[in-house]
Amino acid sequence: MAALIGRKENVTFTKLTSLEPEVAAVLSKHPGNLNLPAITQLAPEVAKALIGEKEHLWLALNGLKEISPDLARELAAAKCALQLDGVETVTPEIAEILGTHQGSLSLGLTSISPDVAEKLAMHDAWLILRSLATIDVESAALLAKHKQWLSLDGLKLMTPQIAEALGHYDGDKLDLNGLKSLEFEVAKRLANAKCAAGIYLNGLKEVSPDIIQALANGNSTLSFQGLEFIDTSCEQALDDAEKKLRAMGKMMLWQKADQPMLILDSHHQDGSHDKGETLSHLWKLRGKSLGSIAVRALHIKDGNSRVVSEAVFPVEDQRQKSIEVQLQLKSLDESLPSNGKIFDPSLSVAVDGITTNAHEGEKFTMLGEFTTHSYSMSGHLNYENTIMSAASAAEITSYPKTIESMIVASRKGVDFFVVILTWQPIDEVNRSVGREASGI
Question: Which of 121, 178, 202, 339 could bridge to 146 as Cys pair (CB 3.0-4.6 Å)?
Answer without folding.
Answer: 121
